[in-house]
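REQUEST FORM: STRUCTURE PREDICTION
Request ID: SP-0412
Submitted by: Lab K.M.
Chain count: 1
Length (residues): 42
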Amino acid sequence: MAIDSQEFKQYNFKRVVPQASQTHRFALILGIRVDLMLEWDL
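STATUS: Completed
RESULT:
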């Protein structure tokens, strides 16, 4: 049972991480652009 749950967690981890990193990269790019826009306004 423990092995099954371990494999299940690993599967979810491998499946979720690419989505999370992609979203994080997108948010990071948006955040940088917003910061630049705010700096240019000042």
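NOTES: The chain is about 95% helix and 0% strand.
Reviewed by: T.R.
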